[in-house]
Design brief:
The protein is of the alpha/beta class and 435 residues long. It folds into two domains: 113 residues, Urease, subunit C, domain 1, CATH 2.30.40.10; 297 residues, Alpha-Beta Barrel (TIM Barrel), CATH 3.20.20.140. 31% of the residues lie in helices and 25% in strands. The chain contains 14 helices and 22 strands. The strands form six sheets. Strands 3, 4, 5, 6, 7, 20, 21 and 22 form an eight-stranded mixed sheet that branches. A five-stranded parallel sheet has the order 13-16-17-18-19. A hairpin with a 2-residue loop joins strand 14 and strand 15. Helix 6 runs parallel beside helix 7. The longest helix has 14 residues. The radius of gyration is 23 Å and the shape is globular. The structure holds zinc ion. Zinc ion binds next to loops.
Amino acid sequence: MHYSDYFFFRMNGFGGILTVSLAGLFLPAPLLVAQAPSEPVDLLITRARVIDGTGGVLEGATLAISGERIETIHPGPTQLQATLTIDAEGKTVLPGLINAHVHLRPPGVVNEQTLTDFLVDGLTADLYDYLSHGVTTIKSAGDPAALLIQARRRLEQGELHGPRLFLTGPPLTGVDGHPAATLFKDNTWLRTRHTIELASEQEARKAVGRLAALGVDAIKLVYQGSSDEAAPYLFRPGVPLPKMSHLIMQAIIDESHRHQLLVTAHTNDLGDALAVLEAGCDGLEHGVSRARLRGTELGPLLKQHEASYVPTLSLYARRRPEVLETAMGNLKWLADQGVRIVVGTDGIPSAGASGPDTLRELELMVEAGMDPDQVIQAATRNAARHLGKLEEMGTVEEGKLADLIIVDGDPLADIAQLQAIEVVIKGGKVVVDHR
Ligand SMILES: [Zn+2]
């Protein structure tokens, strides 16, 4: 690894960081380190087992953090001084967890007044619940845009205490599609703010353009149901579900990419999942829960398109236990194929459930047969890649944002150790300390 080949030390008055290769020097390393005038870094984490999110593990390492970023990673002890030092002996340091499919609107928010009340009273608690369980980044995969844009601004300005927030705005669906005519059928306020129903390709392109102008980070579309009136699809017994046409779906994906936005699709069925991937979609939300995937083209297609699979197992555990076993088997098969698996819970705020649900999702992935290390990558590096933010977050590497968690024990031996979160660091600052 490159950081074992170099020592970095800070020069007083030099105004920068000088990198010196030991191979070019004659002084023995300890003398060199002792003589280096060093200015304290902001935060040192010492004697840590580091799971770096790429599959690598360091024992007894030191992490030096300055400002919001990881400055250096040392394989052992250092002479560096710090404003704050955390001794992590017996503990494990990991990248902060990323939950790439959440919702911020609780079920009780059904009109303007309840939305206003929630923004004042409820949002803070929910966001803090993620953070206190080690979730340093979330992606809202469908909420009223006003709620999100406001929340993101308040988070960025430090008025709200919570994870980094990425957002899609309202999901794009067909006329009378899901969730417009299923979950929100009786509430026009919700239906028109929480979804965008599209009747044509032109409307699709306009909607993507409006969302891009609003500042969303990604686009989400819903591709479930039937676009053939002669062959209806039942969402639930007695509830037929229309789906946007293939042309509208293709227009959304093309227009999103034209705006440099990644686009993911809510699917449930194999044919829909294959269709959106072939149209260039960057990921599947829920994926396939209505059929077994082993031996189908979906694994090779996901790999070929470098698309993500967000299985939302905790959603099924909560609300549709009858499909959980199929969803778990599908996940295991795709993970074995080397498909990029990403953690997402489809959680909605309910008192104190958002953080625990995220950890539950990781445990369900292990129950499905994935290795703890694969699962940790699904919640860190893979999720960062899924958000298009891997150069900034998702691994413990020099130069990346210092979004880190410190847990007691070893989550590679038992994923449930992630419940034993002691410290959460976001952007180089200790934001939660359970010690
Ligand atoms: Zn969702």
